[in-house]
Amino acid sequence: MIEETGRVVAVEAGAVWVETRRRSACSGCAANAGCGHGLMDRLGVSERRGHVRALCDLQVAIGDTVVIGVREELLLRASLLVYLRPLLAFFAFALMAYCLSLSEPLIILSGLGGFALALITVRMRSRRMANDPASQPVVLRALLTGPAGP
Fold first, then answer.
1. From CA 53, how far away is CA 14, in angstroms rounded?
2. Alpha helix (H) residue ranges in the chain
3. Class of residue 81 by CB neighbours under 10 A (exposed 0-12, middle 13-18, buried 19+)
4. Disulfide engineering: 22 pairs with which of 48, 73, 82, 147, CB 3.0-4.6 Å?
């Protein structure tokens, strides 16, 4: 499970909206010390906030700190869907046009058409998956933010 900490900004029936800090991948990069993006990230210039709707069966209130999670296989499937399917469609359509001995501009247009078609199917599938509880983030636990007792 991939986990991220955030702050609850809104509460719905069975779900909460969580504000998370978006970080760049620069912290894991070997060139972090000499890179401008890494420096900007450390200075907080590139800090952005994202809002995520997460399913929740815990009693949380606005302002509480929670840990949300997404299954790894869900993230992998979504990445393949968004990145690999359009690329494969581009090459498949261009290859079909090439096999039909079409001219180069038509091969390029065929590839772009396959790419566009794949993007449309990705968008339709992501809309269907948006309401599926199995494909949504969940609140794993709430973190204590107040004093630790008497």
1. 10
2. 36-43, 72-79, 85-99, 104-130
3. middle
4. 48
What distance in Å separates the CA atoms of residue 16 and residue 58, rounded to the nearest whole number? 10
Residue 149 lies in a domain: no
The CA-CA-CA angle for residues 20, 4, 80, to 5°, reads 100
CATH number at 23 reads 2.40.50.140
Overall number of domains in the chain = 1
pTM (predicted TM-score): 0.64
Helix, coil or strand: residue 86: helix
- Which residue range(s) make up the domain with 59? 2-143
Quote the tokens at residue 7: 């702050």
The model's pLDDT over 39-67, given as tens digits with 9 standing for 90+, comes to 555 555 545 568 888 999 999 999 999 99
Phi, psi (degrees; rounded to nearest 5) at 122: -65, -45
Residue 148 lies in a domain: no
